[in-house]
From TrEMBL:
This is Carbohydrate sulfotransferase. The lineage of its organism: Eukaryota, Metazoa, Chordata, Craniata, Vertebrata. Belongs to the sulfotransferase 2 family. Keywords: Carbohydrate metabolism, Glycoprotein, Golgi apparatus, Membrane, Signal-anchor, Transferase, Transmembrane, Transmembrane helix. Its EC number is 2.8.2.-. InterPro entries: Carb_sulfotrans_8-10 (IPR018011), Sulfotransferase (IPR005331). It is found in: Golgi apparatus membrane. It is a single-pass type II membrane protein. It holds the Pfam family Sulfotransfer_2.
Amino acid sequence: YPHQHVPERQLSEFNLTEMKAMLGSYTKVLFVRDPFQRLISAFMQGMGSSPSFSSFVQDVLASGHHNASETWKPLVSLCQPCLVQYDYVVVFGFLRQELGHLLRQAGLLADDLLPEFTDSKVRWTYSWLSEQMFSELSPQQKKQLSHFYRQDLSAFPFSSSLLMG
C-alpha cells in the first residue's frame, strides 16, 4: 500500500477508507483447506499434547473459537471473506490447476513458473486418513466439529468434507 510507510500492520488496524483503498489496489488470493484435513495435519505435526486424535478434537472444541490456535481456527474468522472480496480462492488439492489459471490470468507463463506440487498426489492418502480418523470420533464430536466449522463449510467449496454429513 503506497500511502503507508509503517511496516507490518494488520488489516484491522486501518480505518475503512484505508482498507478499501488498499484492498482495491491488490489482486486478493485466498488459499483454503478442508477444516477436517487442517485438524488432522495439526494433530500429525504434534500441535497438541493429546495422545489420540479423539482427545485432540475434544481439546480443540473445548478451546472454542476465541482461544483456538490459528492452525485450526475457522478460516472465516482468519481471512474475513465477508469483508475482503477475494479475486481467487485456491483449494488445497488443486493447487497446480488453480495457480496455473491464476498465473495465466496475470499474463505469466504458468508452466515456466510452477513447481511440482504434491497436494493432488496426496488427496487419496488424505481421503483414506480422514476416513480413519473420522471413524475414531463419537457422533457428538462429529456434530460439534460440524458446528464449529459451519461458517467455513458454507463459505468455501468443501462439498466432499466429512464434516458436511
